[in-house]
Design brief:
There is one protein chain. The chain contains five helices and six strands; from the N terminus they run ααβααββββαβ. Helix 3 crosses helix 4. It has 150 residues and is α+β, with helices and mostly antiparallel strands. It binds zinc ion.
Length: 150
């Protein structure tokens, strides 16, 4: 099993079913857009759906779907430095790179680093807390002025 993949549309339907949620055209359109975008705000997802014309949505309805699914753990979310909520279609353990100029997140897949950090953290204690995980974000900006995202 490849654990470094987001759920495809069939797997997503099964996830919805597991949570007693109907596979509405809106929810399916949101996931389809998320599969293409990876990390995206409600605005970006709405725009992508409107471009494709697969379902009738508003930013508010998309935001509701995204936050609901994030609450259920189907998506992760991150707050960007320009104060936008970004949803992440990938919920497996990974690090992020954040482009501080374009406000874009990229996944950094590095299992070796993840297990190094995990084994190091297994010896750490924070008094009064149970450590549940870690969240690492590399930051940077493009080296060239003209930079294409993708
Ligand atoms: Zn990610």
């Amino acid at each position: 099993m490849n654990t470094h993949k987001c759920p495809n549309i069939e797997e997503f339907k099964a996830i919805l079913k597991k949570h007693d949620l109907k596979a509405t055209p809106q929810r399916l359109a949101v996931h389809e857009a998320m599969m293409g975008l990876g990390h995206a705000s409600a605005d970006m997802v709405t725009e992508a759906i409107k471009e494709k014309g697969t379902a009738k949505v508003t930013v508010a309805s998309v935001y509701n779907i995204l936050t609901h699914l994030a609450m259920l753990g189907v998506y992760h979310y991150r707050l960007s430095a320009n104060n936008k909520m970004y949803f992440d279609v990938n919920t497996f353990k990974h690090l992020h790179f954040y482009d501080q100029m374009n406000h874009v997140f990229r996944d950094v897949i590095d299992d070796e680093l993840v297990s190094l950090i995990e084994s190091h953290l297994s010896r750490k204690r924070v008094k009064g807390y149970k450590i549940e995980g870690f969240d690492i974000q590399l930051v940077g900006r493009p080296t060239r002025k003209k930079y294409t995202i993708g």
